[in-house]
Amino acid sequence: MATYNLNNPFIAKLKSRKKITTEESKKDTIHLVVDISGSDMTFECGDSLGIIAANRKEDVEHVLDVMKFSGDEMVKVPKLEQEVTFRKALTNYLYFNAGPTKGFLKKIYERATDDADKRHLSFWIEEASKEALNDYLYKHHFSDLVEMYPSAKFSAQETVDFFKRMMPRLYSIASSPSRFPNEIHLVIATVKYHLKGRQRVGVASTYSVERAPINEPVIPVFIASSHFRLPKDSDKDIIMFGPGTGVAPFRAFLQERETTEAKGRNWLFFGEQHENFDFLYREDILDWKKSGVLSRLDLAWSRDSKKKEYVQHKLWEKRDEFWSWFENGANIYICGDKARMAADVEKTIVNIAIEKGAVDNDPAAVKSWLREHKKNKRYQLDVY
Questions:
Q1: Looking at domain 57-165, does it have CATH number 1.20.990.10?
Q2: Any idea what the Cα angle at residue 160 is, between residues 103 and 202, rounded to 5°?
Q3: Which residues have C-beta within 8 Å of that of residue 92, sequence separation ≥ 6?
Q4: Predicted local distance difference test score (pLDDT) of residue 195
Q5: Given this model, what pLDDT does residue 163 score?
Q6: CA gyration radius for the chain?
Q7: In the chain, pLDDT over 90 holds for what percent of residues?
Q8: Which of the four CATH numbers 3.30.360.10, 3.40.50.80, 3.40.50.720, 3.90.226.10 does domain 238-383 have?
Q9: Where is 277: in which H helix or E strand?
Q10: Are 243 and 272 a contacting pair, CB within 8 Å?
Q11: Is 215 exposed, middle or buried (0-12, 13-18, 19+ CB in 10 A)?
Q12: Alpha-carbon distance values, 383 to 26, 172, 182, 321, 346 (Å)
């Protein structure tokens, strides 16, 4: 049996894709079904699918145009045995749709021959505050700087050496292997925005939901194993926090718990902007609530009223019942945005624990309490 990984991906087919936000939504969120038949790949609930995407043709051509290359130049890409054309390197192996580094700015300064370019670059490197420089780099991509300072010349190989290697995008699997052994379901929010007068896109999201053809073996994929696991004892209760596309692994969890007739109770906290536009997997979730697979369901819609309501607010409202579940052995799972949602939910959980007298209101004590529950798998995070 072949072992598929980053360096040896399985070439899968995209079986179907369906938009699961409405036309009125500000978000473009897609449900995808990836066909892995014939691969002998296996996965567990909580695992992710790695997708090795390709850059858009128009983005590749833009880089070649501003750098005055034909694209036929032969270059060496790290970890590839044979040389490839510069166009192929840009298409398949290099990540250039991202903010540059200060080091890259210095390289341009060193190569620039125009006095005005030199002065402008010198300001950002030597005089600008750290905050201003970071903002400047955030608002530009690598190709923007190459275009802005045309007197700085680089060879195709030097350019390859500057850019980071294209890394796979890992998406939490939204389906259970016991229910769909030869399919992998994903939920992907399409990333698109405008910067410096040009549309920019998330490479992997637009590749998966727009550019990859249906029913053709073209998508390089592999399974990324995870620590994010259902309890081995199916009688244990679980509490899940998965707003937005963070609901993905919990759809898999609930399919698995339903299929295996697990006895443990299931509680889901889900949130998005608008109930009528952004309720991902509405039919599945409401059916699970109706059938009893979901013992509890709490929903938060942040833009449906003047006061923004998020899952952590719902948690605080239900803190007595939450604590009862937790004291009786429930496992906690959080999936989604690390910096905001997960941090806010964790802060709320800690405040509940403090209120209930389970931990002292002391940073060291809180850190130790969280570490203990992470170690015993009662508090698991899948955040990004």
A1: yes
A2: 85
A3: 54, 55, 166
A4: 75
A5: 87
A6: 24
A7: 87
A8: 3.40.50.80
A9: helix 275-278
A10: yes
A11: exposed
A12: 23, 10, 26, 25, 12
Amino acid (1-letter code) at residue 115:
D
Question: What are 72's two structure tokens?
Answer: 């036929």
Spatial contact of 20 and 29, defined as CB atoms under 8 Å apart: yes
144's tokens: 């923007």
Domain assignments of the chain as residue spans, ordered by start: 10-51+168-224, 57-165, 238-383
Q: State yes or no: pLDDT of 222 exceeds 70.
A: yes
* Spatial distance between the Cα atoms of 36 and 95, rounded to a whole number of angstroms: 26
Which homologous superfamily is 10-51+168-224 in? Translation factors (2.40.30.10)
Q: Is the pTM of this model over 0.90?
A: yes
Structure tokens that stand for 117 in this block: 């370019």
CA–CA separation, 147 and 151 (whole Å)? 9
DSSP state string for 122-186: HIIIIIS-HHHHHHHHHT--HHHHHHH-TT----HHHHHHHSEEPPPEEEE--S-TTT-TTEEEE
Q: What is the pLDDT of residues 48-68, one digit of tens each?
A: 999 999 999 999 999 999 999
Where residue 99 falls among pLDDT bands split at 50, 70, 90? confident
DSSP symbols for 286-325:
HHHHHHTSSSEEEEEETTSSSS---HHHHHHHTHHHHHHH
Cα–Cα distance measured from residue 293 to residue 264, given in angstroms and rounded to the nearest whole number = 9
CA proximity to 47, closest of 219, 170, 136, 181? 170
∠263-314-308 over CA atoms, to 5°? Answer: 145
pLDDT band at 29 (very low <50, low <70, confident <90, very high): very high
